[in-house]
């Protein structure tokens, strides 16, 4: 109807003009008003109607819901059903809102995750590019691999989304997305952690989750740090929780406080956490945080190597500490030291231990020993039999030279005979053994010299020692010496019982005597080969040679001839016309003319080579003695020679030898065994045996002293008498002592002049005794480090008595004139009259005029009081001396 009126009015308006229009407007107004009687809702909103309605409502309220009037005094209430419905509706509305909000948040998170993934992908690509350029560190390698997997083009994103959805559904089960979620979320610590991480970091969570296993296997620290970083990094996101964020934040704060309390308790954690927090702030929300490898501080025990002696300064440098600190520490312990104070290894070790530093004793490399060592290792298949090298030893006049000559003369062919013009210290002979031609090399240097010199570098140059014993004389001191030399060098001994042509010869007696020296002849049940020979008649020589050859077979003497030559110098000299001449024994390989030889401090190219028959030869094979020309200087006998590739190499060898040799000489002179240093050497573990060379005036003494000495031993060291004999200490004894680093003990004997010279030069400790127990006591004390010092008399001046004074207080004063030197208080004096010594004792006091003085010098007058001696006369001579401690 309204529509109709509207249409009608508009038509009328159009038809009747403006006046009508006005009227119509009024009509329209009245007709459209709800107050108009024609209005369809007329009366509905009128005051009257309103009032009526209210009245009706009041009436209704007085009725029960089912329309019955309420009893007076009761009010109408909303039914429970209706209330429930209202609440349900409200809850549904709230739920709807909450779901919408969560959906919104989820959307936001997905977007954030996408951004993260993109960023991670970008980083991975960058890292990959870096790893292509540089060699990858393990950490980068693993991480880049993981990231690459997370963003791989095909399926990478897909699996990423899928995994993210899975994780989200597991991290946020739908039942948890309720209004109480935030509260529960914050209360549940474990869930809160994971939930935080998984829900807020989105894509990063995925990437990191993907990294996690790899990172764990790589270094647990990485994972720990990552989780902490992520946990903090998501904090700002919590604020987006709208009205729930407050509760969430409260939970975070309480969590933080708990962490803080924990941090305060453990300082280390505190600083660690703080560092991370700083990092989080820097990186900001949503940024990809590259996990850092936390360097594990491993407790490493430092160790240093120390020499036997070290200065404070050197020690500080080795320990990387300040010298001042060490000096201070020692000072506080009552030790006053300076930078240059030398410390023993033990002292230095004690200091180092205080700095938690372990010490090791510096191992001294014997450069020369290394240098002379044969660097080439011969294989068994390359070895070929070589002639034995034999040395002939024995007592004086027992026939050594005669035997050697006889062997040489009977074994050289007529062609060679005339050729023997010179001795080169060794020669070779051919022997027929069982119809087979065999060669034997003889060294014709005096036996013990050959041993001592050859043993200089520890080279075993001789294979067999022929001990010559005259059948008519038996074992003599030098025979024993020779036995001991051979034994000390571990050389096989073949006994040649010589002069069997003599009527007084007694072969059996010699064999019996030999038994005292552990040389038991085969026919006496032993293994020592004894060959009766006569150098004069030549009898038995063939048999001797055969036995030598057989013994060589037993010893299986072999060498590789196809390699660079290596051997030993037999002797060497400077020849006026030919320069340096060295006689060598080739032990391995083949020496050729033109080879460059290095031998000790000498070197040079072999210019010429001469054999034992004086012939020029081009090459020398194992066990061959040769004379070579061409060295730049004269080498020492016993020195090792080696063939080098070129002169430069040989020169370098020689240079090292010279420099090291000097150093070694200093050290060796210090290291020589002496009773004074014995204890230190034992303690340092340098000594296990104490070798002794014993000489006495009679055999009875030798045995008595030897037996007593050999009984001396303690836990660390044992006395070993390596040689004992009757007679003065000679050159040979000293040489043996040098070669074996032994102490020489003389009982009622003295060293001869040469022996004394060598002993002094070579620092050999020679001890002389005339009472057995004193010798034993000294060695025992030395082994315990308690050997008393030795004092030596030192004359300091002479005086002549010119006047006698008598004093009631001091007795007789010898008014004397000091002719030379000085007279010293506390010194000793010997008074002689007409060459006869009347007094030897202490000087009680020395006066100059009336004053007591410490000393009076040459050409001065003084008063001397002798302790306990008054029978002094004018003209008496006084020799003043002091007792000085001598270093032994
Ligand atoms: N009857 C006899 N005399 C011999 C024999 N061998 C050596 N002689 C003699 O013994 C003496 C010493 O001989 P050498 O060969 O000089 O003895 P050595 O051991 O070499 O002597 P040194 O070189 O001084 O150590 C000489 O007069 C030889 O003639 C032998 O078998 N029978």
Automatic annotation (TrEMBL):
Gene: infB
Stated name of the protein: Translation initiation factor IF-2
Gene3D superfamilies linked to this entry: P-loop containing nucleotide triphosphate hydrolases, Translation factors, Translation initiation factor IF- 2, domain 3
Primary subcellular site in the record, as a coarse category: cytoplasm
One GO location term (cellular component): cytosol
Pfam families: EF-G_D2, GTP_EFTU, IF-2, IF2_N
Family membership: Belongs to the TRAFAC class translation factor GTPase superfamily. Classic translation factor GTPase family. IF-2 subfamily.
Native source species: Oribacterium asaccharolyticum ACB7
UniProt keyword annotations, A-Z: Cytoplasm, GTP-binding, Initiation factor, Nucleotide-binding, Protein biosynthesis
Molecular function in Gene Ontology: GTP binding; GTPase activity; translation initiation factor activity
Compositional bias segments (type: Basic and acidic residues): 1-19, 45-64, 89-136, 151-204, 222-235
InterPro entries: EF-G-like_DII (IPR053905), IF2_II (IPR044145), IF2_N (IPR006847), P-loop_NTPase (IPR027417), Small_GTP-bd (IPR005225), T_Tr_GTP-bd_dom (IPR000795), TF_IF2_bacterial-like (IPR000178), TIF_IF2 (IPR015760)
